[in-house]
Amino acid sequence: MRFLKTTFNLKTSIILFLSVLSIFAGCRKDIVLNSQKANSFASIIEIKESYEKLAIDSRTRDSLKDGLIIRYIPQWENAKYSQINDSTQYTIVPLIGSGQLNEKEIPVQTVNNTAFLVVANGQKFYLSRFYPDKKSDDNFLKNGKLSMIDVFNKNLFTYSYKNGKSTYNAPKAFKSPKGSTKKAAYEIRCREEGTCVWSTYCRGVGYISTSYPGTCSYPTDYTDCDYSVSWSQDRILYNTVCENVWVPDPPTDGGTTNPETPPTPKQLLLQQTKNTDCDGVIRANELTRNQDFRNRVNEIKNKSEEWGAAIKLRDPNDPNSVYIDPASSDNKVSNKSVSPSWDATRGYVIGYIHNHPGEGSPSPSDIFNAAVDILEMVNSQNIPENQLEIYLRNFSSSVVSGGNVYTITIANAQLFAMMTGNFSTAQESANKQYKNAAEKFMNQNYSNGTTTEEFQASGESALIKLYGKMFNLSKQKIGETDSNKAVKRDQNGHISKVNPCTP
């Protein structure tokens, strides 16, 4: 499918300008940064001793793919100080990235946020990042978002800034601990928040883009290279978000309690839904036993343009009520428009099937364009919990290519949902990244030309490298049934096909 090209403004250096920091934890507490160190503050010498004793350097490093290691170097001479309350003082220390690639030091730039340490009373360390709404040197801690991660327990706290005033972003959609018996007391409720780390390397400089917590969008940040730079999703960081929730005594003779708002059943379902490789293979085999599905495969397998059809449910409450629309085409070799929906008027679209005339493997757009915006489904009052679960368990995107049928299913519903709502704005960049990664793998491993299988393996390796935590991928020959195998990638990028349902 066609991707839209986007260009960005060049910004290659970040100057820390610290003026006002307001942190909210429950109620708002104003923090004033002073230009002179208060007598009660821990000295930089004391903080450095704690920094070294507690091995903060190693706890804040990013070990990325391809051997790139990022260290964040404190700029002690530029530290600022702020009094929080009678018992708490903050020292705020700017951080500058330094990279090591294949035992060689390289310069590193953080392109979408400003990184710094917040040190409470000289001993408690928070790795902090400010994401400005607009990239200007005087916007720091004025308009944007802030994340603070406790270096030791990985607890995450986020804040929003407007005109220098901050508000604490209280977490939502919490899951109570199993077996909790507390009552008339505070109970700690926690969940994991995923944050994607992206990197690229060009002209001797490493670039790091750390997404705002809870998001995983492809970077839209410009570098010293042109717009064709390829970003690699290196890993997803998981931090714990917690809050104290008051648990009241239950009534003994009628009346009601008023606990804090719990997560909705659909929010919990999204967080908890995980589908294994075996689940993906079972779903793929179910599809290939469907006569409508086999008919569409045979209809579109030899087309010279992309043809496709929506896979729908007659009854949104019955996952077995599958039927498939007639195949259609936009008369384009590498583009077929997709409009997934989940309503009675447009249909309950549980997936999509289309062909690749060029015999390539699935691309990023084949994963996410075929899916409904799952977060909209979670928030919609018109979609009940059982229908959401049917969708998360049975969604599929199938690609007919080079004598094979691929089937994509959801692996991690929470991560998959993050992309379905944001992918349209990142398609062009994601397509370039996927293409570059596939070509790199092909050139490194198949220098004497490629067969169709090797050509597809290069794309499979690139796709799993970029988004493998979010989806399951299976594959079988056209005409076969119940023979799907999971497509897996090892640490060197090589592809194998296995039966994940065999003990």
Q: How would you describe this protein?
A:
The chain is globular and about 75 Å long. The strands form two sheets. It has a 15-stranded mixed beta sheet that branches. Strands 16, 17, 18, 19, 20, 21, 22, 23, 24 and 25 form a ten-stranded mixed beta sheet that branches. The protein has eleven helices and 25 strands. The longest helix has 19 residues, at about 425-445. The chain starts with 19 loop residues before the first strand and ends in a 5-residue tail after the last strand. It has helices spanning about 45-55, 55-60, 265-270, 275-290, 290-300, 365-370, 375-380, 385-395, 415-420, 425-445, 450-465, and strands at about 20-25, 25-35, 60-65, 70-75, 80-85, 90-100, 105-110, 115-120, 125-130, 145-150, 155-160, 165-170, 185-200, 205-210, 230-245, 305-315, 320-325, 330, 340-345, 345-355, 395-400, 405-410, 470-475, 485-490, 495-500. Helix 3 runs parallel beside helix 8 and helix 10 crosses helix 11. It has two domains: about 45-175 and about 185-245, no CATH class; about 265-500. The protein is about 20% helix and about 35% strand. It is an alpha+beta fold and about 500 residues long.
Quick overview:
Residues 481-492 have a biased composition (Basic and acidic residues). This protein has eleven helices and 25 strands. It has 503 residues and is of the alpha+beta class.
Question: Helix fraction?
Answer: 10-25%
Question: What characteristic shape results from the CA principal axes?
Answer: globular
The percentage of residues in β strands lies in 25-35%
Distance between the terminal alpha carbons, to the nearest Å? 38 Å
What integer is the average pLDDT?
A: 79
Domain count: 2
Q: Biggest sheet, open or closed, and with what strands and sense?
A: 15 strands, mixed
Based on CA atoms alone, the radius of gyration comes out at 25 Å
Counted by DSSP, the helix tally is 11
E-strand count: 25
Derived from helix and strand composition plus strand pairing, the structural class reads: alpha+beta
- Low-confidence blocks of residues: 1-39, 173-184, 251-261
Region (Disordered): 481-503
Biased composition (Basic and acidic residues): 481-492
